[in-house]
Amino acid sequence: MSESTGPGAPEGGTLALVLTQVAEAGPLAAACALAKVEVDAAPTPVGAVAVCRRTARGEPEQAAEAISRLLSNTPVLLVVRRDGALVASRWRGGTAADEVAPGLLLDGAPPELEGLLVGTVAVTDLDGVVSSVGLSRWRATRMLASAARAARRAR
Description:
By secondary structure, the chain is of the alpha+beta class. The protein has one domain. Helices cover 34% and strands 23% of the residues. The chain is built from five helices and seven strands, in the order βαββαβββααβα. The chain has a seven-stranded antiparallel β-sheet with strand order 6-5-4-1-3-2-7, with helices on both faces.
């Protein structure tokens, strides 16, 4: 039976987050939809975070691998909270690079991220959440194209 952190996940259950430097939740959710990674993407002041819907052993690593391949030019962090313990690892280009001390993540983390990590905030409590689940390829592609156009205009 697969553990899950869907929108109504119980507090204290397994949680897997992929922290990115993507500016907005929409493009991250769209990219995840195209890669068939089930996440709820939420904006934070330090970048969008992908909250994995599938958290059985090995599945968060598959999500981090896929997301880090999509964002091949920038590292991402996978943080898993299982049985009350946090484990964090840095990923780049589809490969786990090294482990990161979880305490470093909490030090100076924005309240949204800290709340998710310690279990006091559910992803559904955050504003601006976009799910990759149910996004069609067509809609995801349009979202990415729109974000790319906005980024070009901002330069």
